[in-house]
Design brief:
Length: 268
């Protein structure tokens, strides 16, 4: 019966330490020599908020899964500054590169949820010779009216007494910064013209875009861009009766779709 071993570590950068967790299949296969899947979390996310998805994915695809907390999130070092407007672009050459260098990651599969999907796409475009495949889940490609309204609604919920404690469970004292980094950035006037068009046009690897039909933060126009602009083979999976977190709402479907895509479109 296949099993998974998991271990944690910190990667030191000039700004502070980044928390990383790695799930590894304990099998006699060649999983250790295949490209790992690197997970990029969403705007309120963390390694812990992936819950059991990394372990289930590792079992499903029989390869290493790596997740990390971005600066200011989870167990990584705190931030008190204003999130930079180009934070999505900066992820590839900033935290991701630091982790990649420390862990010796060469070829990789980038998998991101929500804004993490945009970051994964930036990594695919920045390292075209090394990114074997790009997988996005509920990823935004531009700022849509539905996106803005969804964030406003969420902000009102978190403003209610006790609601911020939900974030403190995963981010501790950093919870208020995490919430403001999300709402203040995405609702700012300067961010309303942001798009992924230029980045996606530079993606050359195979792309899988998973999206829930009932996603409260974005219509199917987003996965359509993720699968129409890149140069390589692209697959779009629209999941019925599914919202913004497919890996939590339909975990078996998501892992199955990812396994089928990787088997068909990757050789390493």
């Amino acid at each position: 019966m296949p099993s998974i071993s998991a271990h944690e570590r910190y990667v030191t950068t000039s700004a502070g330490e980044l928390y990383v967790k790695i799930w590894e299949p304990v099998t006699a296969s060649d999983a250790a020599t295949t490209s790992p899947i690197v997970l990029f979390h969403d705007s309120l996310g963390s390694v812990e908020l992936w819950r059991d998805f990394p372990e289930q994915l590792a079992l499903s695809v029989d390869r290493q899964i790596i997740a990390y907390d971005r600066p200011g999130f989870g167990r990584s070092y705190p931030r008190t500054d204003v999130l930079e407007a180009d934070f999505i672009i900066n992820e590839a050459t900033g935290p991701f590169t630091a982790i990649r260098n420390e862990l010796g990651i060469e070829d990789f599969i980038a998998l991101g949820h929500s804004v993490g999907g945009a970051m994964a796409a930036v990594c695919a475009a920045t390292f075209p010779d090394d990114c074997v495949a790009l997988i996005t889940e509920a990823a935004q490609a531009f700022v849509e009216d539905r996106t803005v309204q969804g964030i406003r609604n969420a902000g009102q919920v978190f403003a209610e007494e006790g609601q911020l404690d939900r974030l403190k469970k995963y981010h501790g004292a950093k919870a208020d910064w995490v919430l403001r980094a999300w709402t203040d950035t995405w609702l700012s006037e300067d961010f309303q013209h942001w798009t992924m068009n230029e980045t996606l046009a530079r993606v050359t690897c195979p792309v899988l875009a998973i999206h829930g039909e009932d996603d409260e933060y974005g219509s199917e126009a987003h996965p359509e861009r993720y699968t129409s602009l890149p140069a390589g083979p692209c697959v779009m999976e629209l999941l019925r009766e599914c919202g913004h977190v497919p890996h939590r709402e339909k975990p078996e479907v998501v892992t199955g779709v990812i396994r089928e895509f990787i088997t068909r479109y990757t050789a390493v």
